[in-house]
TrEMBL record:
Function description: Catalyzes the reduction of ribonucleotides to deoxyribonucleotides. May function to provide a pool of deoxyribonucleotide precursors for DNA repair during oxygen limitation and/or for immediate growth after restoration of oxygen.
Gene Ontology molecular function: any one: ribonucleoside-diphosphate reductase activity, thioredoxin disulfide as acceptor
Phylogenetic placement of the source organism: Bacteria, Bacillati, Actinomycetota, Actinomycetes, Propionibacteriales
Cofactors named for this entry: adenosylcob(III)alamin
Protein name: Vitamin B12-dependent ribonucleotide reductase
Region (Disordered): 897-917
Domain TSCPD: 736-840
Keywords (A to Z) from UniProt: Cobalamin, Cobalt, Disulfide bond, DNA synthesis, Nucleotide-binding, Oxidoreductase
Amino acid sequence: MTETVSTRAKARGKGLKLERVFSTEGTHPYDAITWERRDVVQQNWKTGETVFEQRGVEFPDFWSVNASTIVTTKYFRGAVGTDAREWSLKQLIDRVVKTYTKAGIDNGYFAGDADAEIFEHELTWLLVNQYFSFNSPVWFNVGTPSPQQVSACFILSVDDSMDSILNWYKEEGFIFKGGSGAGLNLSRIRSSKELLSSGGTASGPVSFMRGADASAGTIKSGGATRRAAKMVVLDVDHPDIEEFVMTKAREEDKIRALRDAGFDMDLGGADITSVQYQNANNSVRVTDEFMRAVEDGTEFGLRARGTGEVIETVDARDLFRKISQAAWECADPGLQYDDTINDWHTNPETGRITASNPCSEYMSLDNSSCNLASLNLLKFLKDDDTFDAALFAKAVEFIITAMDISICFADFPTEAIGKTTVDYRQLGIGYANLGALLMAMGLGYDSEGGRSMAAAITSLMTGTSYKRSAELAGIVGPYAGYARNAEAHKRVMRKHQAANDVVRVLHTEDGRVHKLATKAWADVIKTGEKNGFRNAQASVLAPTGTIGFMMDCDTTGIEPDFSLVKFKKLVGGGSMQIVNQTIPRALKKMGYQEEQVEAIVAYIAEHGHVVDAPGLKAEHYEIFDTAMGARSLKPMGHVRMMAACQPFLSGAISKTVNLPETATVEEIEDVYLQSWKLGLKATAIYRDNCKVGQPLSDGGGKAKKDAADKAASDAAEVETKVVEKVVYAPVRKRLPKSRVSRTTSFTVGGAEGYMTSGAHDDGQLGEVFLKLGKQGSTLAGVMDAFSIAVSIGLQYGVPLETYVSKFTNLRFEPAGLTDDPDVRMSQSIMDYIFRRLALDYLSFEERSMLGIYSAEERQRHLETGSYEPLVEETGSAAELTTPASSSAAAEVVEAEEIETKDTHGSEAREVPAQVTTGEAKTTAELFEKLTGTAVDSPLCMTCGTKMRPAGSCYVCEGCGSTSGCS
C-alpha cells in the first residue's frame, strides 16, 4: 500500500507545496525559546510513597510545572534510571515529528525536501509552543520499538454467534491492554425472548455483558492502575431493552444495601468488585420513530433480531420514562440518536454507524479506529483580544496533514480494524480551551454570542480540514472506500455548508471567523468535486484530559470552566492558589479599571464565585458561569452549546450534561428530548451525588445520599432527629509578663520599618508590633490598630499559618526588593512581614506546605534538589543560618514563584489568592474547600488526589491519569 501510493504520487510529480507560517527560516524552533532543567518527583499524598522520580528533565521555561510533570511521567519512554530513558521534551517531540516527516516523504506527500523540512519545523513549533497536541497513544508509541499505534478510539463488532462473542472478549482485552478503549453495539445478539435453533432460549446480550464486564475489570488499561474504558450500546427496539436499561440502576441498589451493611463500596474499595456492569458506559440507540412515539404517546414495537418482526409492543413514553429514571438513579444509560447519526454519515454504502467509542465522540463504521489531535484555542487569541482565524486555519492544515500521514505507518490491534482504518482514514481533529477563550473574550458560555463564536470556530476547523483532505486526495488519492460512497460523502459536505450558511453572527469577531469558514466550505465543495476526499471523517470534540494538561489548558474540550480558582504548582516546590488568568483579562476587555479588577479578583479568591463581587455589573455575571458552584450553568446551557457545534463535526461531542442533585426525572426527560430536537448525536447526563460508589471528600455524602434515596422511594416515614447544640467559646491565652521578643528592621521597596514579635514560653507567636511612618501619622495609627488586632487573634487561638496564608502575596506599594536575604522580593509590606514571621515561628514542615523557604533552604534545593535540612530541625527556621551568599539564588526562586507567562509568551503577574496549606490537592478539592460542597468524582488510582470531570470522563490534575480512552 505504501509503495503504491508513493510511486503513484511521484509519477504525477505532485506533492504539497508548503510555506512557513509559525517557524522562522534559518532558526530551528528549539533555538527560539529558553530551556531549563527541572526535577520531577511524584508522590501519593495518602501514603507518602514516591511513585515516580526523574531529575534534570529539560523543558521550555514557559511550560508549567504541571505540564512538565505529566509529560515526563506519562510520555517519556525508556526505563527510569537508565541511559535509554528520555530526559528532554526535544527528544519526545523529535521522536514523533521525525517519524511523521519520514512517512510523509516515503509516501509522496511533499513536493520536495524543502517542503518536508518546513512541515517538520512547523509541526515542531506548534507542539513545543503548546498550540496543539496529538492524542496520548502517539506519544506512547510513535518512534519506539512498540507497535506504532496512533489511535485512541476503537469501535468493535459482535454477531449472534458464540465464536463472535468470545472474539469480542479477546479483541476488547487487547485494546484495553494497549491503553485504549472500545465501544460496540450488542443488538445483533438474540434476545432472551427468542429461541435457539436447538429449541432452547437464547441468553440475551445482557448476560454476555457480565463476562465482558468482568474481563474489563480484570485487565488494567495499558498496564496502569486505572480500569478499562468501554461503551456498550443496545438499540431501543431490542426485546431486552428494558433489562439493559435497568442493569446499572439495579446494581446501584445493591451497592446501597452492601454499603449500609458495612461493606467498602467506594470506587476502588475492597468490595466494589462484587458489583457488575461498572466498567462500561451504557447507551440506548434511539430512532426518530421511537422519539416521535414518545411525543405522541403511542406504542412502539420491539423486534426479533433474526426476522425483524415485532414480537412485543411497549408504551413508548413508559420506556422513555424508565430510561430517564435509570439515568436519574445512576447516570446510565445515555442516548445516541441513530437517525441523526446516520443522516450525517459519509459512508452509508459500506454500512451503518451502530456504535461509538467509550467517550461518545467517535462514531463510524464497525471495526474501525480514529486518531485524535486537539488545538489550544486560547493560543490564537491575540493581544487585542481578537481571535486569529487565519492563523488557526493554517495550523489546522498542518495538523490534519500530519494526522493523515500517521495512518501510513500505524499499527492496529486487529486485522479488521486495520483494514477499515486504512480504507477510510477517519481522523478526529478537535480543540480544547473553548470555555477559557469565551471568558477571555467577554462572552458567556450560555449566551448567543458565545454559541455563535463556538459554531464559527468549529465550522472553520472542519471546513479547513476537509479542504486539506480534498487537496491531499489530489496528491495521494482519495480513501479506498470513497468511490462507492462519493455521492453520500458530497451530500454530507453540502449539509455542513448549509449549516454554516444559517449561522447567525452577532459581533465583529464571530463574523470574521465565519467569513473564513464560508470560504473554506466553498473550497471543500469545489475541490472535493474534482479530487474526492482523502478522509471519510475529519473532526470530533474529545475530552482532552491528559493532553489538555500538556498544553496548559484551563478548560478541556468543549467544557466551560470548572472553577474560577485553581492550584498552580511552583518551580521551587509546593503550590499556590490562584484566580484563573482569563478572569482579569476578561474584566479588562469589558472596560473595568485596574483597581476594580483587583477588587473583583480578590473577592473571587475568597469566595470562589462572582456573585456580589464589588463593582461587577450583574449583567456580566454570565461570563464567569462555571460547571459547578454558585453560578453553575443550567443543564440546557450545556445542551445548547453542543447543538451549536454539532453540525460542524464529523463525529460527536464528549460531554456530560450536569444536573443538580435536586433535578427530577422529568428534567432528565426534557434534556434527552430537547437534545434530539436540537440535532445532537448523543447525550449523557450526570445528576450530582446519584452514584454511591464515588468517594466524597466530606462526611456529609452519605447523609445526602440517604436523603435522595428516601425521596426516590416516596417513603412516608419521617425521621425526627434531636441535635444537641454545643456552643464553643474561645479562651484567650495571655502572654507572660516577661517574654522573649525579637525585633527586625526591614526595607521594602525603599520604605523602612521595624517589627517586634513576642512569644509564649513554648515558642508560639503571641504578639506583633509594627513601626511604620512618623509617630502620630495616619499610617502609624493604622499599623498600631492592625498590630493589636493580629495580636489578640493570635492569643485567642487563630493559627499563624492562617494569617500567613491570608496576607502573603497581597500586592500593593511599596513593593520590590528588600534587605532581607531570606525574602529578597516582596509584593507588599504585608507580604514581607508574614513571610518573615513564618520563617521565624513556623516549623520547616509547616512552611514547606506554604511554599516559604529560607535562603539556605533554597540554595540547598539548587545544589541537591531538596529543601530538607541536613540535620533534624528542632526549632523554627530562624535557628538555621541564612548566609548572604544565597541571596541571588533566593531572588531567582522568589521571582519564579510570582511570575508566569501569558498565552503569548510575555511576562504577566499571577493573581494569587493564597498558598495552599496542604488541605487541598487539586482544583476539585479546592472547589470543595471554598464552597463546602462535594465534587462527585473518583480519586485518582495513581496519586490519590480527586479527579475532575473532563467530557464524559474524569482526569487527574496531579498526574494526568484519565478514566477514559484518550
